[in-house]
Design a protein that fits this description.
Strand content: 15-25%
Amino acid sequence: MKPKNKLNRVLIVGGTHGNEFTGAYLIKKFEQFPEQIHRSSFQTLTLFANPQAFTAGRRYINKDLNRCFLRQNLEDSTLSGYEDLLAQEIDHLFGQNGKNPVDFILDLHSTTANMGLTIIVDNDNPFNLQLAAYLSYVNPSVKVYSSANSGRGDNSLRSLGRFGICIEVGSVPQGVLNADFFLKTEAIIHTVLDYFELYNQGKVPLFSNTLILYKYIEAIDYPRNKDGEIQAMIHPQLQFKDYEPLNPGDPMFLTFDGQIIPYEANSTTYPVFINEAAYYEKGIAMCLTQKHQIII
């Protein structure tokens, strides 16, 4: 297979959120042992994205860095916040008109939700989907989540590359280094780099071209009172049930006085990011998805 989009430069990013230690410490490891991510047909770069937030043990300093990459904001010289300026600096270094424009961005994240090994694609780009299909073929425990309908592809760090995906692993508490997920994430990274090497050489092996894809439908907030205060929790039967079917009438929330709030809909969905700690401030209790089998 002759490559249509030969990759020349790949960027691995960790520490986009300062309290997600899996990616942050993998970047530290790769900076110490760069030969581990070296491949002959392309250049592999690393980025420790938000060092101040990491030092502070926080997700961010002023605002979520992974929401700062809208083109209009990257070109706005009046912005002065730490993450806004950091995003502009990253764009100047690695954006398509930057000093070292990258073909592919691999952004490393962890979640407090029970997402296991998840690949997130932000659009329906065939190159990204083909890679995701290959990763789930190599490791059947890998799930693939499409955030395309959420608009996340517009303002995330990985939007700077021609192509890009996110590796999202969990459940991992914030500010904790989990060896199991560290090793599993590292293994996926090496599989990605090996795939790119084969791709550039036109040697990608034949594999199943079917992919199970969980497509974003909508985000669901917690029940709140008129003052915006949360009035219910994720129901115990739903907690840690990411990617499992949520059927009409199934328990969804449990109020503080013990009342069950069921899932009211006409069809089955598959929730992800259930009870993600970082999403409380965003008003998101979970994201609902539809499960699709597609042909790449």
